[in-house]
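stuck on this chain:
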Amino acid sequence: MEEELKKKVKKEEKDEKTELKEEKTPKCNKEEKDKKLFKKENKLEKEIAELKNKNDELVNKLLYSQAEFANYKKRKELEVANMLKYSNMDIVKEILPIVDNFERAIKLDDSNLDDSLSKFLEGFKMIYSHLVELLKKFEVSEIDCLNKEFDPNIAQALMTVKAEGVEAGVVVEVLQKGYMLKDKMVRPALVKVSE
């Protein structure tokens, strides 16, 4: 019995000690837990805000890249369209001196020529007309500036002359024809301008 009593007393002492511990620690633990939870919530909120900012930055970068690519694509399409539009420019530049030479040959007076040279000149005229038609087919046009006001955008003045009855700044003679390919100048006209 004595032993049972001792056991009971020990048990009660133990129970009292645990109750005291539980009374002290739960309050501390609860406050600490609340503080810890509050810190965790703040930390999570900061992380969420940072992630949202990073997400917004990435979305903005993506939109910028897409817009930049769309602009690049438009520029390239325009460049390709212009390249195709004026693709014949080089060959036209090479053909124009030939046309000039034919025009000089045709200007010769064929009344003094014998029959064989006259036929030869007739062949020149046929070749010249074919070349002119070919140029027209590819939208190459002659710049018409004779007896018009001098325009430095389409002609180069090689000399000025005094011409009676003509206002100053008017083209009085075309020394070399100028040509346009569609709406782009291939070669300016070389002209004499009145003073």
In short: The chain has a mean pLDDT of 85.
